[in-house]
Amino acid sequence: ADSAAAEAARARQDSLTKPPGALGRLEELAIHMAGWQRSERPRIETAQALVFAGNHGICAQGVNPFPQAVTAQMVANFEAGGAAINQLCRASGADLSVHALDLDRPTRDFSQAVAMDPEEVLAAMKTGAEAVDPAAQVLVLGEMGIGNSTVAAALACATFGGAPADWVGRGTGSDAAGRARKAEVVADGVARHQAARGLTLLAAFGGREQAAICGAVLEARARAIPVLLDGYICTAAVAPLFDADPALLAHCLAGHASAEPGHRRLLDAMGLRPVLSLDMALGEGSGAALALGVLRAALECHNGMATFAEAGVSGG
Amino acid sequence: ADSAAAEAARARQDSLTKPPGALGRLEELAIHMAGWQRSERPRIETAQALVFAGNHGICAQGVNPFPQAVTAQMVANFEAGGAAINQLCRASGADLSVHALDLDRPTRDFSQAVAMDPEEVLAAMKTGAEAVDPAAQVLVLGEMGIGNSTVAAALACATFGGAPADWVGRGTGSDAAGRARKAEVVADGVARHQAARGLTLLAAFGGREQAAICGAVLEARARAIPVLLDGYICTAAVAPLFDADPALLAHCLAGHASAEPGHRRLLDAMGLRPVLSLDMALGEGSGAALALGVLRAALECHNGMATFAEAGVSGG
C-alpha cells in the first residue's frame, strides 16, 4: 500500500464537512482503498466477484446432512442467476464468475490422509490467480463446497490452536450431534497433520476452493487490488497465508462476521474487523458482496463531499 | 402490518436456495417489509429521505463547541449536494429533501423553561407529516441541529431514567469538560420537567426537528410506510412516541448503532436492533441511508432468488 496516498486521503477526510471521524468505518475503508489504489481519490468502476467451488473427501465421515451433489447443483444455480450471490452482486455492482474445481474428484479425507498433493494445491492456486481480472479495482471472494465448514474448522484449529469444538459450528444444517461429529473429525485431522504450517496446511486439509482463494488473494496482492473476504470458510481459507506471513493479507478486508461461532474467533486471531454483522451464514461471497455496497458508499462520501472551505461551513 | 403477508414472505424465504435462516438479518428485513407493504414480494421503487433541521435554546448553556450558524450552513450544504447524506442517498437511491424549521428562532433553553409551546410542537409535527411522500415505499429519517445531542440525551434520560452522564456523549466535538457540562444541563432539564410524559416531552425539551420526525413517523405509520431511523438524535426524537405507545414505532427499523454511547442503551430500551454498526456519529440520516442499501439487497435476494424446486437443488 502507498502510505502517502493513504495519508492524503486521511487529510481529505478531515477536511470534509463533518466532524473528524464522524463517518467511522467509512473513513477507514476509504483510506484503505486509497492506499492500495495509490490514489487520494480511490474509485470502484470495476468490481469483480469470484466464487470457487470444490468437493471434499471429509464428507465420507458423515459431517454434513446434505449430499455432495448439492455443490454442483448450486454451481448450476449460480450460473443460472438464481442464488443469493447473483442478487447481491447485481445490487452492489460486481461482475460475478464462478469456477468449479474438479467437482467429480473430491479431495482426500483429511482424517485419513493429506487432502491434496502439492501439485493439486498449486494447480488450484493457479486457477484462482488466473481468475483475477487485472482491471478489477476491488475483488469479492466467495466459495461453495458441501463439507467445507469442517475444512474451515480444521484449518483454523491447525493454524491457531484451541479446542476443535470451539471452531465448529452449524455449517449447512448440522444439529448438535453433527457438530460433535465435526469436532471429532477436526481433532483427528489436526492430530494427524500437526507438523503442517503455512501452505502445507492447504495440502493437509484442502480443499481446491480454499487453494483457489489463496491464489486469488496472492494475485490481488501482487496487483495491489483490495480484497473483500467473505465469511468463516473464506477467512479460514487464507489462514495458511496468514500463518506464512500476515502481511500477505494486508490488502484484505473482512466483509462480515458470520453467524458461525468460529468466525469471530478467527477474525480476532487474524486482526480483521468485519464491516457487517448481520447473522448471515451462507457463504458464496454473500457477506463480502453486501459489504461492497458499504465500500462504494464510503467512496461516494470520500469523493463527493464538499470540504469546509468549499461549502463555507464554520469549524473545519 | 399484515401478518399474512409477513408469513407468506417467511415461507418464501424458507423455500429459497439457501439453508433456512442463512441470510440472517436480510431475511428479517424482507419479512418486515412484506408485512408493512402487505405483499409477499415487497419492493422499493420509491425511497424517500427527509432531513429536518432546527436550532436549540439550550446552546445558551455552552453545550456545544460549534456556533448555531452551522445549522443553516449545513442546510445550505445539503441543498448544494455537498454533505455526506447527499452522497449516501445517491448511493442507495433515495430522494432527499431537507426541511429547515425556523432556524432563526431557536427553541427556548430547556434548563430554564419548556422548549416549545404545544402549538409549536404541533406545527413542527405537521411539517414533518406533510413532508412524507405518500408514494414512498420506505422512509429514511435524519436531522441536523447544533446542540441537539444534548436534547437527545435529555429526551432519553427523561423517558427511560438513569444517570444523565450515561446518556451524554461527544456529540459534535465535545471534550470531557463539554460532556460534563452537557450532563449537568440534562440533569437540570430532567429535574425541571419531571412530570412530562409522551408528547409533552417534546414540548419540554424540543426541538422542532424532533417534533417533525415524530410527525413524519406517525404519518408513515398511518400510511404503512416502513421507516429507517438514523442514529442517537433521531432515535431519541421518537422516544416520546415510544413513551406514549411502543406500537406507534412498529414500522420503524434502526438503521445503525451510532458511536454515541447513549445510542445502544436507547436502542436496547426501545427494543430496536440496529442493521449496521460502523462507528458513525454524524446524523443527517447518514446511517439510515446506508442501511437502505442493505434493505434493498435484502429485497433483491427475497424477490430474485430461485426456490429449491425451481433450481433443482436437493435438500429444500
Structural class of chain A: alpha/beta
The proportion of residues in beta strands of chain A is 5-15%
Any idea of the CATH class of the largest domain in chain A?
Alpha Beta
Q: Please summarize the sheet with the most strands of chain A.
A: 5 strands, parallel
Arithmetic mean of pLDDT of chain A: 96
Ends apart, CA distance between termini of chain A? 28 Å
With strands numbered from the N-terminus, the spatial order across the biggest sheet of chain A is: 2-1-3-4-5
Order of helices and strands of chain A: HHEHHEHEHHHHHEHHEHHH
Task: Please provide a written account of the structure.
- The structure is a homodimer of 316-residue chains.
- The model of chain A has no long low-confidence stretch (mean pLDDT 96).
- Chain A has 316 residues and is of the alpha/beta class.
- The two termini of chain A are 28 Å apart.
- The first copy, chain A, has two domains: 3-41 and 302-311, Orthogonal Bundle (5,6-Dimethylbenzimidazole Phosphoribosyltransferase, Chain: A, domain 1); 47-294, 3-Layer(aba) Sandwich (Rossmann fold), CATH 3.40.50.
- Chain A has helices spanning 3-15, 25-37, 69-80, 84-92, 118-131, 148-160, 164-167, 176-192, 200-205, 208-222, 232-237, 239-244, 261-269, 286-304, 308-311, and strands at residues 47-53, 95-100, 138-144, 227-229, 252-254.
- Chain A has 15 helices and five strands.
- In chain A, strands 2-1-3-4-5 form a five-stranded parallel sheet, sandwiched between helices.
- The interface between A and B is large, with 58 and 58 residues.
